[in-house]
């Protein structure tokens, strides 16, 4: 399911495609990932003893902390979840239970494995869906349908017999003489998507709205989901007829056929293994649960959250609806700005569980310039592509990109430093009029040069108070 064959240099090279700078952070996560591969090649006894070296990323917002963790997980196909430490509170107070982190991680792993397993049966499900569409167009009673009720075989179903007799009387005479070749030809046309725009009527399952009403409210997520599943399995699914295109019906039938093919026991086993051996948890705002000076004492739940997080980071067994999940070898990456508090303000036990500390640097003008142009699907490429849909040819000149980078750096210095996210606000401001007028303009070639950028931003940037609100 997950690929650990990449060398540290290969991992860094892949991260470089999406994230500018922060070489030390990339190096640290690459080593942590490679250590998992090394661990798998040791004896079982040794594997149990080697625990992940969790990472603490320190740096202002918008410099790439979250993106590094997210891209890392995507790179190796590992279960990943991002949470914010401030959403959790000490047991006994209003807030989320920290064990919910692991339950959510397992749920993500289940979805990942389901998607991968679905690829295996995709062709089979598609074929079965097409057969069901043919059955709607051209009904042909199957053996299963004839024998679906054993009591009918013994006693007969008078109502069904009457219905069948009525249908046979109403059926067009020409269908009686139709050869199997005609039916096969229709099936081939369905498979070739030649009938996708035709409208048909099919039966679709619908959830009982009364059950949905019962389950709304402020109950906990886990209890709500479990209760919904329990009721769903007890209550028979209602079906109603709906008219739709063949294309839409194929999607519904395909999903139903995939459900029949997938073995949930196998999926759960694979997902739990992937979670335990390759899961990555990214905990943001970690600095917010550190004490801001011991003299005044901690907030009511800040230290409590740390002590609740500690067991799952150290290694514990969390009960989920899919079964127990061990957290011993899950990689935890924590991140925070640590402007007010320091990593040393965390409780000593938790500090010891994050042995790798990496300080990420604030972005320079050159970094902003690279972010605008170098990554795959960079911001400049995104805006060019978006406006091209309106027939607008957007051209960013070298001096225009330099000026955008300079303004982003300046605004970050004078107001709040939000890192690369500043580029989004500045680009939106620069291209606001262009995006608004795009469908109606005659001149479709727009050059974003230094003069264009300065004209749009100069007044706002000069007025610091205005910058706080607009940029």
From TrEMBL:
Transmembrane segments: none
Keyword annotations from UniProtKB, A to Z: ATP-binding, Chaperone, Cytoplasm, Hydrolase, Nucleotide-binding, Protease
CDD domains, alphabetized: RecA-like_HslU (cd19498)
GO biological process: protein unfolding
Keyword check for Transit peptide: no
Alphabetized Gene3D superfamilies for the sequence: 1.10.8.60, DNA helicase RuvA subunit, C-terminal domain, P-loop containing nucleotide triphosphate hydrolases
Subcellular location as annotated: Cytoplasm
Compositionally biased residues, Basic and acidic residues: 158-182
One Pfam family matching this protein: AAA
Keyword Hydrolase recorded: yes
Residues annotated as domain AAA+ ATPase: 51-360
Residues that hold ATP according to the record: 20, 62-67, 284, 349, 421
GO molecular function annotation: ATP binding; ATP hydrolysis activity; peptidase activity; proteasome-activating activity
Record InterPro entries: AAA+_ATPase, ATP-dep_Clp_protease_ClpX, ATPase_AAA_core, Clp_ATPase_C, HslU, P-loop_NTPase
Region (Disordered): 155-182
Major localisation: cytoplasm
Clp ATPase C-terminal domain residues: 363-452
Gene Ontology cellular component list: HslUV protease complex
Subunit structure: A double ring-shaped homohexamer of HslV is capped on each side by a ring-shaped HslU homohexamer. The assembly of the HslU/HslV complex is dependent on binding of ATP. A double ring-shaped homohexamer of ClpQ is capped on each side by a ring-shaped ClpY homohexamer. The assembly of the ClpQ/ClpY complex is dependent on binding of ATP.
Family of this protein: Belongs to the ClpX chaperone family. HslU subfamily.
PANTHER family listed in its UniProt record: ATP-DEPENDENT CLP PROTEASE ATP-BINDING SUBUNIT CLPX-LIKE, MITOCHONDRIAL-RELATED, ATP-DEPENDENT PROTEASE ATPASE SUBUNIT HSLU
Function summary: ATPase subunit of a proteasome-like degradation complex; this subunit has chaperone activity. The binding of ATP and its subsequent hydrolysis by HslU are essential for unfolding of protein substrates subsequently hydrolyzed by HslV. HslU recognizes the N-terminal part of its protein substrates and unfolds these before they are guided to HslV for hydrolysis.
UniProt name for this protein: ATP-dependent protease ATPase subunit HslU
Species of provenance: Megasphaera paucivorans
Record lineage: Bacteria, Bacillati, Bacillota, Negativicutes, Veillonellales
Gene label: hslU
């Amino acid at each position: 399911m997950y690929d650990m064959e990449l060398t540290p240099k290969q991992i860094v090279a892949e991260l470089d495609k999406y994230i500018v700078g922060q070489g030390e952070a990339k190096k640290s996560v690459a080593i942590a990932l490679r250590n998992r591969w090394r661990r798998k090649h040791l004896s079982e006894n040794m594997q149990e003893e080697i625990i992940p070296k969790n990472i603490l990323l320190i740096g202002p917002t918008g410099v790439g902390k979250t993106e590094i963790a997210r891209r890392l997980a995507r790179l190796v196909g590992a279960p990943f979840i991002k949470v914010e430490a401030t959403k959790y509170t000490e047991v006994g107070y209003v807030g989320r239970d920290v064990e919910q982190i692991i339950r959510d991680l397992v749920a993500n792993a289940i979805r990942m494995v389901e998607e991968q397993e679905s690829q295996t049966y995709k062709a089979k499900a598609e074929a079965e869906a097409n057969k069901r569409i043919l059955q709607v167009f051209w009904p042909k009673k199957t053996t299963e349908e004839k024998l679906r009720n054993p009591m009918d075989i013994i006693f007969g179903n008078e109502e069904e017999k009457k219905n069948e007799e009525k249908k046979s009387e109403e059926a067009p005479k020409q269908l009686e003489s139709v050869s199997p070749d005609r039916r096969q030809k229709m099936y081939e046309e369905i498979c070739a998507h030649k009938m996708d725009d035709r409208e048909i009527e099919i039966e679709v399952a619908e959830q009982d709205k009364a059950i949905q009403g019962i389950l709304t409210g402020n109950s906990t997520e886990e209890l709500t989901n479990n209760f919904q599943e329990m009721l769903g399995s007890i209550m028979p699914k209602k079906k109603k007829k709906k008219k739709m295109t063949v294309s839409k019906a194929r999607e519904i039938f395909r999903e139903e056929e995939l459900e029949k093919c997938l073995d949930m026991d196998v999926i759960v086993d694979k997902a739990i293994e992937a979670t335990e051996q390759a899961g990555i948890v990214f905990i943001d705002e970690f600095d917010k649960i550190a004490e801001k000076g011991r003299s005044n004492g901690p907030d009511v739940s800040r230290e409590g959250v740390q002590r609740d997080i500690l067991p799952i980071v150290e290694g514990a067994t969390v009960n989920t609806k899919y079964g127990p999940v061990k957290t011993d070898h899950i990689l935890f990456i924590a991140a925070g700005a640590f402007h007010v508090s320091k990593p040393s303000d965390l409780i000593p036990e938790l500090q010891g569980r994050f042995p790798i500390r990496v300080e990420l640097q604030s972005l320079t003008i050159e970094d902003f310039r690279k972010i605008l142009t170098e990554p795959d699907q960079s911001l400049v490429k995104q805006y060019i592509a978006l406006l091209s849909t309106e027939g607008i040819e957007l051209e960013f000149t070298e001096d225009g990109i330099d000026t955008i980078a300079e303004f982003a750096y300046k605004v970050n210095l004078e107001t709040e430093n939000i890192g690369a996210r500043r580029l989004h606000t500045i680009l939106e401001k620069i291209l606001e009029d262009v995006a608004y007028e795009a469908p109606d303009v005659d001149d479709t070639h727009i050059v974003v040069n230094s003069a264009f950028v300065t004209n749009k931003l100069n007044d706002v940037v000069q007025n610091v108070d205005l910058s706080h609100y607009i940029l």
